[in-house]
Amino acid sequence: MKMPTRADAISMLNEAEKLNPGKWVQHSLYVAQAAEAIGMAHPRLNGEEAYVLGCLHDIGRRSGITYMRHAYDGYDFLSEQGYDDAARICLTHTFWFKGTYDYPGERDCSFEEIEFVNSYLSAIEYDEYDWLIQLCDCLALPTGFCLLEKRLVDIAIRYGTTKYTAEKWRQLFEIKNLFEQEIGQSIYNLLPGVRENTFK
Q1: Is 146 part of a structural domain of the chain?
Q2: Using CA atoms, how far apart are residues 55 and 46, in angstroms rounded to an integer?
Q3: Residues 138-176: pLDDT tens digits?
Q4: Which of 11, 31, 62, 92 could form a disulfide with 54 if both were Cys (CB 3.0 to 4.6 A apart)?
Q5: Whole-prediction pTM value?
Q6: Handedness of CA 61, 66, 67, 70 (dihedral sign)
């Protein structure tokens, strides 16, 4: 896969934190840890690659406080360096339905940028790494791992909902079930502190 090493990914995240400090950095590290744990338990995924993808999924936030734009900026930043697979995750973790129409937050991209994202997503098929980072993005608060329900409500409160929200949630729980079938156990068994962090 076309992506940086773990060390390089962490270095990129550290650099990004200096450009735009915030809770998003700790969130990214927890997403990376969750992705690695599930990836290591999965028969077809690579835990090291999963970690890197999780670590960089929000790297577009290096450019500042943005909404939809963070996905585009992350794709642009990583693709310029030749890391096409990591760049792809910046888009697919944000747009679950292979388009921008279901995005609940501010649409702070230009018309041309939105058209590019829609064209790019319509031309690819999502794979298990795309679904993994979508899942892990919803398992991680900046303070640690949590139940999906807590994170989904957190996102809904901050960004609002759309007519697609319930359908997105159903799809996410289907993804969770698919991964649990593959690894033969609850994903929560792999996430230390999930109970404490959810209910504290």
Answers
A1: yes
A2: 14
A3: 999 999 999 999 999 999 998 899 999 999 999 999 999
A4: 31
A5: 0.96
A6: negative
